[in-house]
Amino acid sequence: QVQLVESGGDLVQPGGSLRLSCAASGFTFRSAAMSWYRQAPGKERELVASISVGDGRSTLYADSVKGRFIISRDNAKNTVFLQMKSLKVDDTAVYYCKAVREGSGYWGQGTQVTVST
Questions:
Q1: Which of 20, 76, 77, 78 could pair covalently with 82 via S-S, beta carbons 3.0-4.6 A apart?
Q2: Mean pLDDT taken over the chain
């Protein structure tokens, strides 16, 4: 079955960096569009970044993370990454990986990112 496992979340100070990973299995990874979402306490889940199928030439970012976050994919490792820099307190959230293929969406369990002094 489809499985998405996020990792890399941590407690980091403002201005710091983190790299999140999402390891996928149970489907043809390169055929899926991949995204990162996040959900902060008391807020709705929001799209952070997306990357297209195949070689991932097309990416999309939320305005709040443009210039600070980079999404990438390694099809040989069935993994999607989210490189985050210049982290802000407002980036604190649970970050979720999502795969979309053949019209169906699949979610991971999430990884906690906390930005705090």
A1: 20
A2: 97
- Let me know the angle formed at the C-alpha of 18 by 63 and 101, rounded to the nearest 5 degrees: 65
Check: CB of residue 33 under 8 Å from CB of residue 104. Answer: no
Q: What is the pLDDT of residues 25-81, one digit of tens each?
A: 999 999 999 999 999 999 999 999 999 999 999 999 999 999 999 999 999 999 999
User: Does the CA dihedral 8-27-39-51 come out positive or negative?
Assistant: positive
Q: Which residues, at least 6 apart from 103, have a Cβ–Cβ distance to it below 8 Å?
A: none
> CA nearest 37: which of 25, 26, 49, 52?
49
